[in-house]
């Protein structure tokens, strides 16, 4: 069965824009994944552990035949292929791919929690997500409500649009 999923992708080490390009390219190359939308790129101050470089963040919509665990494995494979080294939680990373939503499904296991447990408190997730979320009106309203409840300035999450789109991306059309 085809499911629409949303990912959050972040990077704050090295050639950040290139890292995003590479991640999108690897997603697109997968035969069971069709990337249907990519948000603008946002540059954001680090949240959580704040003593680290600014991030670039995007959200991506995709359609896939993979189940949620297979999609997670693919995300982790892409992280590894791009040379991510795990140092410490919320620390700097070449690339980070988190599953935000997988259809309407909910998971709460050791390996996988969906919706992503921290997505509704992270402006760097919600702002790009709102931009591309067209599939589900109820979920979009949930995202917008969470976003309005956040005080972006107070959070120290300076968001600004960097680039219109990930270069060379051609959305998959049904
Ligand atoms: N929705 C999800 N998307 C991606 N990973 C998840 C999800 N739910 C649980 N996980 C688990 O989280 C583990 C740790 O992920 P990671 O090291 O990327 O955390 P983090 O990005 O530092 O922090 P955060 O989870 O706050 O974004 C992964 O091994 C994975 O099994
Ligand atoms: N701005 C920003 N801050 C973060 C990010 C991120 O992608 N962007 N990812 C984190 C770990 O998940 C922790 N903090």
From TrEMBL:
Alphabetical list of Gene3D superfamilies matching this protein: 7,8-Dihydro-6-hydroxymethylpterin-pyrophosphokinase HPPK
Pathway where this protein functions: Cofactor biosynthesis; tetrahydrofolate biosynthesis; 2-amino-4-hydroxy-6-hydroxymethyl-7,8-dihydropteridine diphosphate from 7,8-dihydroneopterin triphosphate: step 4/4
Domain 7,8-dihydro-6-hydroxymethylpterin-pyrophosphokinase: from-to ranges: 89-100
Enzyme class: transferase
Keyword tRNA processing belongs to the record: no
Keyword Zinc-finger belongs to the record: no
GO molecular function: 2-amino-4-hydroxy-6-hydroxymethyldihydropteridine diphosphokinase activity; ATP binding; kinase activity
EC number: 2.7.6.3
A single BP term in Gene Ontology: tetrahydrofolate biosynthetic process
Catalytic activity: 6-hydroxymethyl-7,8-dihydropterin + ATP = (7,8-dihydropterin-6-yl)methyl diphosphate + AMP + H(+)
Keyword terms of this UniProt record: ATP-binding, Folate biosynthesis, Kinase, Nucleotide-binding, Transferase
Alphabetical list of NCBIfam families matching this protein: folK
Protein name: 2-amino-4-hydroxy-6-hydroxymethyldihydropteridine diphosphokinase
